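User: Predict the complex.
Assistant: Input components as received:
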Amino acid sequence: MDVLGQIQIFSTRFLGIFIEAVSFLLLGTLVSGLIEVFVRKEDVIRFLPRRAGRAVFAGSFLGFLFPVCECGVVPVTRRLYQKGLPVAVGITFLLAAPVMNPIVFASTFSAFGFGVVLVGRYLITLVMAISVGLLFTLQRSPAKLLSPGSISTLARSAVGGGGAGIETPQRPHLLPGLIKSLRYAHDEFFDMGKYLVIGTALAASMQTFVPQEELRKVATDPVLSVLAMALLAFVLSVCSTTDAIIALSFANPINGFTTGSILVFLTFGPMVDIKSTLMYLGVFRRKTVVYMVILPLLISILIGIWLNLNVRF
Amino acid sequence: MLLLLIAIGIVILAGDRVGLYIRDYSPQAEGSSRGPITLVFDQNLDSNSWVGQIEITPEINGVWSATGNRISFRPEGAFSAGTRYTVRVKAGLKSAVGRALLADHQWDFEVRGARVAYLGPIDQITQNLYLADPAEPDSGRQVTFSEKGVVGYEVSPDGGQIVYAQLGEENAVSLWVLEVDSGNTSILLDCTGAQCANPAWSPNGERIAYERVELNLNTNMTPGAPRVWLFTLATGENRPVFSDNQRIGYMPRWSPDSKLLALYDSSIGAIVVRDLSSDTERTIATPQGEVGRFSPDGRWLHYPKIIQVPGETRYVAHYVLVNLSGEFTTQRDLTSDHDPNNDVDFAWMADSKGVVVARRVPPQEQVNSVMGAQIYQLQLEAETAIPLVVDPDYSHGMLSVSPAGDALLMQRFALGRPGARPEVWVFRFSDQNLIRIANNATMPRWLP
């Protein structure tokens, strides 16, 4: 194919991913703005269990309170950090929320019905998010996990209100509060938006220039299919609200991908893909992001391969 | 991370405990004498590993084929009715990616006796489909309940379904399917504004060829000429056989391997034998406008020709056999042009070496003034006709040999009997026994 044709395909795919993702980023930043204005630090502290393990477990279900996909979850998490959310709980929320929310439940149910894929998606997501979250509880210093930019806003937040020993601000009235939250949302949207643009461009490039049909050749291989779907999930960067429909197209019963690999696509993909990885770098240190990518990848591969080799679907 | 990598390695080294597995197989408890035996796996198969990995007991010759994740077996003739067959799939059969069947899989099934389908009652305005068991004469039960009537039908190769043409509103005829075991019916092809009739089910069960006539309801024109269309069951694809819509065709007939479709193309006055895989065709010029049937081995196709009896003013029909096995078609007559007999119907014997014809003997040989067509057996390599059913009180037609080749199904009509209606009968070759299946019935077909 000629260069112009490939550029055209690239721009179509770029716009496809961006338009789909940007609406969720907008939603996420709006929720983030509302949290900033209307949620106080002690609300978060009161809501979360004191013990780290329980807090991590609770964090995996926060998506049902803040239903956002992987694009919107990053600004929400960053804002919740400013409200005192422990880093490990935030990471658990970050990884789980794109799946653990009612919108994704509905889309997965409509694609696969009630069965092994729906149940598997939720169970595996819980296992992955909680495991990774628990590992991060071992590091108690937020400064070693969060990026310097996040640390400075955290510090400003602590000084500005809600910190220990500092008087807690009153909740603002509704209208001024809404205007204020829109301002926060605006800043947040453009702050996170640059990562979204770069991530989307990378994802569109991978989709355009890396031949995906080759991956289909290993669809029924119990090991290679899992690796292929993990790679596809990372490259395609599909929003978790619609990925079930795409997964369905890979899952035809005759020569479709193995069930284990479909579950990898539906669990690893919402946690980590090209654009979300770029957005993570806006919140966390590079080393933290490496762990946030590699650990879910390995856990999902382990579960996917084990399922393929040991469970008859 | 290292622990996770080690865990992944252990899981892989522990090996495949699921492997390739059989998702579905048929027939399960009871099967048709025509088969097929079908195995559906969860993955596409390695193209060579399955050869010799499946056994059928008692042994029977037939053709194995594998496509994708499916293996099927069709017997050369038919499974023996009443016999219990055991199918064993040996462990080790591999998928395209090397996953193996981990354990032997074995099951057995019993072959049911062939049943008979027919249309009736013939003396009413509308007819419906009936099924009967030859072992229980006059046991026919109605299986379709169409208000406007069934005008034609065809049995699926395995006998599990019947596609039938049902009259609807404004003379439209649509194709419906009857599930024989459950009795459920459903529309297969809605032909509003058209008549879809004379369905012919491909022997591999995948496609249905049928005639389609546009009724031109909104144009004040008369109905159009028939065209042959193809309907693919798996995909629902429905298209005319000829891309040129000026080509008229009717009377579709499938070759046993489902690769060839013969039909009469009245725009060129010839039988067209079309190879659907290569979209090539051969033509057999004949003005009679009728297509016969392929022999069970696929070598021959017959059609009728009209000739004048030498030295007489009388015209008779004889059958011509077209040999399709070579690159070029060759033809031969079933009987010599000097033969004064009039052959009005034809059916292949199961071994393709002989035929059964309904024959009207010359007037000088008739025992009464109304003697109808009688049934004779002929071998292709000998002109001697062996009388099978000769009863001057009856005329015979609509012949078909049973899937196992042990019986002949026919329609009989009692001549000279007031109020007589067509009847459906079965003739057993082994003991020459004639059994009446139904009265007031027509268009009999075997249900394997």
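Residues 159-167 of chain A have pLDDT under 50 and may be disordered.
Let me know if you want any component modeled separately.
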